[in-house]
Amino acid sequence: MNARAMGAGLLATAALVLLGALPADAAGAPPSAPTPEQAAAAPGTLDTLSRFFARDGAVARSAAAPRVEGASVPVRILSPDFVAGKAGAPVARVEFRASRAVSSDGQKASLWTVEQPGGGWQVVNIATGDDEVRYAELGGGGLVFREPQIDAWYVQKGAKVLPLDEDAVRAVGRNGTSLAAYRDRVSRAYGDKLPGSAYARKGAAGGYAPGETDAAARPDVVTAGGERPTGTNTATVAGAGAVLVLALGATTAIRRRRVN
What we know:
Elements: E1 5-6, E2 16-17, H1 24-27, H2 36-40, H3 43-53, E3 67-78, H4 80-83, E4 92-102, E5 108-115, E6 121-128, H5 131-138, E7 143-147, E8 152-157, E9 160-163, H6 166-172, E10 177-178, H7 179-190, H8 198-201, H9 236-242, E11 252-253
Antiparallel strand pairs: 1-11, 2-6, 3-4, 4-5, 5-6, 7-8, 8-9, 9-10
């Protein structure tokens, strides 16, 4: 197993769960419908970023001076319909948008935004690093997507699936593979773990098994203030309309950041 892999079927790559932890002005209903970029650059979000970048004393909160760089990018995740072999299904589907945030000392973070039912976008999560934006840039205009079960990033260019990181190289080789061969691989790996399968009915897909749901027991999940939440299921991020669960049931990698 990848040393970074934890959990089962939950796309929760974040070090910081913002849902329910953002300041009221950022987490509450906005007076207008913000774009992903506006939500990412909102004063409440920047204040939360200052606390995030100041964790472990990396930089003083007052000196963090976070800024959001560039436009947001769509983040695509391997599609269960593609895994199931549904005719015409794309290899991946958009689950959220990500923006790159940078602190005064060079730290980077990824702001995840999701569209709200009433319109506009809201930040639901902050993850260490800028993988989402960086791989979108590396994709050179192709369709970039992530296979969360092995934390692999790819780009689809026509009928080819090419690797963007070492996890993907281990899966499909340095020269990539055909789209058809990639479908065969993921169907073999995850086809028996899709929604509606016996695996899913046992409660193993799309969440954590009993005893693994408390964020207090998961040191990689913290609140905006840096304290560990008590009795909070990390799946609440998905429950807020973020659709961050890819219910394929295999282990998924988490970009871990322990905050004391």
